[in-house]
């Protein structure tokens, strides 16, 4: 049980950090390359930034909630409602991350095939790669949330 709890905290920390890096890199991708292009001109990149911001905020709250529980042994959101919320949100954010990362990947590939490589698509590619890693952290969190939701009561 303790190993699962530690893994949950680690997955949440990883998700928060990866979402922060992903949206920071993509948001910094402004006026780059020969075309002086910016992420905010493309809806796929705006979608990716938005989902990563939401993922960062949610993961940050979850890290706080788990730290609060470890210190006080009281949940911020009562159980079993909190278990349902965790499971649903982890699933939703994992889906949104894979969806936004996929659309941003397609946009980056299209940009490179039309205009060639330069700093703008390189930064976008790096951000999307980190966003995919954040998806993996959310997928692990969803598995742990499922464990907490569906484990047999003792």
Question: Care to describe what's here?
Answer:
The protein is mostly helical and 154 residues long. The protein has one domain. It contains four helices and no strands. Helix 1 packs antiparallel against helix 2. It is elongated, with a radius of gyration of 18 Å. The mean pLDDT is 89.
Outline of the structure:
The protein is mostly helical and 154 residues long.
Largest sheet: none
In total, how many beta strands? 0
Give the SSE order as H and E letters: HHHH
Mean pLDDT: 89
- Tally of alpha and pi helices: 4
What gyration radius follows from the Cα positions, in whole Å? 18 Å
> What general form does the structure show?
elongated
Poorly predicted sequence stretches spanning 5 or more consecutive residues: none
| N- and C-termini, Cα separation | 13 Å
Helix content: over 70%
Q: Which structural class matches the secondary elements?
A: mainly alpha
Quaternary structure type: single chain
Strand fraction equals under 5%
Instruction: Count the domains.
Output: 1
Keywords: Cell membrane, Membrane, Transmembrane, Transmembrane helix
Transmembrane segments: 51-71, 129-150
Subunit structure: Homodimer and heterodimers.
Family: Belongs to the Casparian strip membrane proteins (CASP) family.
Descriptive key words:
154 residues; mainly alpha; transmembrane helix; elongated; membrane
Describe the protein's topology.
Layout: H1 2-27, H2 43-72, H3 81-115, H4 119-150
Helix pairs in contact: 1-2, 1-4, 2-3, 3-4
């Amino acid at each position: 049980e303790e190993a699962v709890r530690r893994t949950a905290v680690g997955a949440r920390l990883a998700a928060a950090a990866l979402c922060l890096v992903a949206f920071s890199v993509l948001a910094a991708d402004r006026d780059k390359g020969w075309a002086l292009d910016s992420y905010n001109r493309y809806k796929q990149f705006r979608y990716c930034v938005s989902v990563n911001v939401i993922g960062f905020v949610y993961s940050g709250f979850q890290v706080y909630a788990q730290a609060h529980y470890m210190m006080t042994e009281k949940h911020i959101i009562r159980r079993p409602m909190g278990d349902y919320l965790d499971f649903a949100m982890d699933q939703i954010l994992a889906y949104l991350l894979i969806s936004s990362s996929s659309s941003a990947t397609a946009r980056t590939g299209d940009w490179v095939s039309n205009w060639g490589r330069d700093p703008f698509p390189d930064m976008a590619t790096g951000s999307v790669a980190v966003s995919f890693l954040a998806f993996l952290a959310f997928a692990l969190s969803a598995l742990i949330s499922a464990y907490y939701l569906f484990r047999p009561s003792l």
